[in-house]
Amino acid sequence: MNLDFLFYPKSVAVVGASNKEGKIGNAIMKNLMNFGFKGKIYPVNVKESEVMGLKAYKSVLEIPDDVDVAVIAIPAKFVPQVVEECGQKGVKGAVVISAGFKEAGNVELEEKLVEVARKWNIRVVGPNCLGITNIENGFDCTFNPPERQARPGFGGIAFMSQSGAFGAAILDWAAKHEVGMSKFISLGNMADLDESDFMTYLGEDPKTSVITAYIEGVKNGRKFFNTAKKVTLKKPVVILKSGRTEAGAKAAASHTGSLAGSYAIYKAAFEQSGVLEARSMRQLFNYAKALAMQKPAKGDRVAIVTNGGGAGVMMSDGLLERGMKLAELSETTNEKFRKAIEEGKLPEHMSYKNPIDIIGDAPSSRYEIAMRYALEDENVDVLVVIALFQSPALDEGIVEAVGRMQEYGKPIVFVAPGGEFPEKMARRIEKTGVPVFETVEDGVDAVYALVKYGQYLEDTM
Amino acid sequence: MNLDFLFYPKSVAVVGASNKEGKIGNAIMKNLMNFGFKGKIYPVNVKESEVMGLKAYKSVLEIPDDVDVAVIAIPAKFVPQVVEECGQKGVKGAVVISAGFKEAGNVELEEKLVEVARKWNIRVVGPNCLGITNIENGFDCTFNPPERQARPGFGGIAFMSQSGAFGAAILDWAAKHEVGMSKFISLGNMADLDESDFMTYLGEDPKTSVITAYIEGVKNGRKFFNTAKKVTLKKPVVILKSGRTEAGAKAAASHTGSLAGSYAIYKAAFEQSGVLEARSMRQLFNYAKALAMQKPAKGDRVAIVTNGGGAGVMMSDGLLERGMKLAELSETTNEKFRKAIEEGKLPEHMSYKNPIDIIGDAPSSRYEIAMRYALEDENVDVLVVIALFQSPALDEGIVEAVGRMQEYGKPIVFVAPGGEFPEKMARRIEKTGVPVFETVEDGVDAVYALVKYGQYLEDTM
């Protein structure tokens, strides 16, 4: 399924484009014009002759050019007629922002919309959605203003959301945390295109390396399962499914009309189709960030290198509580450590039982030795590096040292708890390709995702 | 137990004070001088006549003034002799930064230290610790420089840590997240003063409203249990205990020498003594922040007001998964909502079944009505307010509106997911006394702490 026409349109019509501040059709125009989108923009407004300095048309039919995508933000009852005109015009995709369809009890109106779209072979996003965003080319037809909802930088994580509001929060959050994203889709009512269609598309999208989603219920269970099974062999899929409890399911029913169904069935379907299930927003991003930046692990044996004993203990607990193992370092590795200590390259009071505690006064050179020994050990599948940057002994050479460790081809997760200085270092380390997390528990999530997805691939392929 | 002499000293001797950059005795001097501490500082150094512009003394005995606290940062083997001199001088407390005692196998040296201290009735913090900090008066004898480890503002949360490095990370983290703290104690080897002693002191400290701790193992189980049982009746105690798993316990044994003992026993002891157990750093702070800012809940029935359906569903799941309930709103409340909708004060398509979804275009006036109705309902013990600030419809009047809700005397937890704008609003809302959290899951933690501690008090008192 190729939906490139939706995300890389050469020309877009905005039906309901408006000069009036506060109108959705005004906000969409601004967002289309403000993030670098290079395609043509054609405002459509029955009353205005010009919108935001661009010539406006009474109907898409009047536009003297091909139109790839129509973004529709007008009262619901007029939407089917506009889609009809889009069909006559040869429009390929319609993003229907308008609410007032099935979610408001107007089931027939939504059926009518789908009927017209099918007749003309138009693919529909929504209705009742926030729009879609392609971070790569700045095609952003959502309607929240940038001063309220920042846009993330370009990166490998795609996100689709059954909740527009939560989707907006996610984009805003990703921007603040400097997590790069590829594409965002507000799914809305999924009258036509649903989560499985987008999963298929994103599975083939070379700009997306991890697919993430917030859903309350899937539209078609069988289709979802078969799609997920195929896509997860190509790239990781991480889903936050809400409506897990009775109260949550009730709330979901009144929110998106999703019959959440038994959570146990979802859980089993995720498990069997290789979908990683996140239980919270932060976990969703921890999983996604790890998988976007590192290769899945070949096994569950983790080595920890730390300059703080306490953090090493907490990391050990976290890993074991999530079903992973601490790697038992080989005799060869122990011997290497013993020799380095003898030669004065490593301090006498350190512990080289895993967690490898290189103690509080460790400079980056000491990290480098310990990281190498751990990564060279065949009993180690994943390396966790914990750095408490509050210690002034830890020099900035750690950035390059960690970067060099990627030559071993084993996944690495970095944890740097604290405030501003660690955060600054984190962003620098991430430029070398190693993901950095703010807390031990976030790091545990990251390792879990790499191990769990690796296991699934191992078991399946 | 009054340890005010340790945290509010009139005069401090720094034994091992140094002019040399990079020396611990230099870093301690700087920190004592840099955060507003008004007491007298007497550097002690056998070789220097002046340190950092202050007259230096060869021994504490030469200081021509009373000395309340001696901070000791010299090689371990000289420490007992210095403590002996401190005793002769009438020093009341010694903070022993020096490492090289029990943790390095030198058990006898540590026993010697304790013996001398007992003889002179000197209370000892450490040895092998990072120092202590009183945020209130700027008395900070820790040794990490501020450019690596920021200091939080003054507030009600005290923290003690068996891991100095993790303690430093916590302070740095609290500063970044603008969480106010009262006192910080790096426990070190706990040769004399232990976690129970400090718990007793902090329990009586009027500047501390919540006591938090990171521990790997307690020094004396019976003492801890009895102390906790008393203190939790006065104020909440939140503990992050690591070494819960076999691998974690092993790592703890090599880190602090703690025989972590069976985790099941700790768990039971926490439960029975009213200690809230946090499983991660973030949870520790979520619990502490909620309890520092709001009163414990009288029950477990939670109402949710939200402008985003999805976030309401996730919050419902989170609360139920942690054993809480969604409040069933009374018929009176339903009637009020119906009336307000009829009168056009609330929108037709909103849901007033809990979660109360006032939908995406809600301004603060709509929040105010919904919050009041929820808080007036006798079936509601706690109110959760979720605001997706990405919607430009939500005006800044929400700050004052939420502040006004405190008149009902029920605990309120606010959740504002996203990036910079929500964060800015969060800090403003917190000035009214309502704690704000970044994600739904953090908000769930906050409610849990208020409910769980409230239940304990209810059952015990």
Automatic annotation (TrEMBL), chains A, B:
Ordered alphabetically, the record's keywords are: ATP-binding, Ligase, Nucleotide-binding
Judging by the UniProt lineage, the source's domain of life is: Archaea
**EC number, as in UniProt:** 6.2.1.13
For this chain, one GO molecular function annotation is: acetate-CoA ligase (ADP-forming) activity
SMART domains per UniProt = CoA_binding
Q: Which Pfam families match?
A: CoA_binding_2, Ligase_CoA_2, Succ_CoA_lig
The name under which this protein is listed is acetate--CoA ligase (ADP-forming)
Q: Which PANTHER family match?
A: 3-HYDROXYPROPIONATE--COA LIGASE [ADP-FORMING], ACETATE--COA LIGASE [ADP-FORMING]
Q: Does the keyword Nucleotide-binding apply?
A: yes
Q: Which organism is it from?
A: Thermococcus aggregans
Which residues does the UniProt record annotate as the domain CoA-binding?
6-101
Q: Which InterPro entries match?
A: Acyl-CoA_Synth/Transferase (IPR051538), CoA-bd (IPR003781), Ligase_CoA_dom (IPR043938), NAD(P)-bd_dom_sf (IPR036291), Succ_CoA_lig_flav_dom (IPR032875), Succinyl-CoA_synth-like (IPR016102)
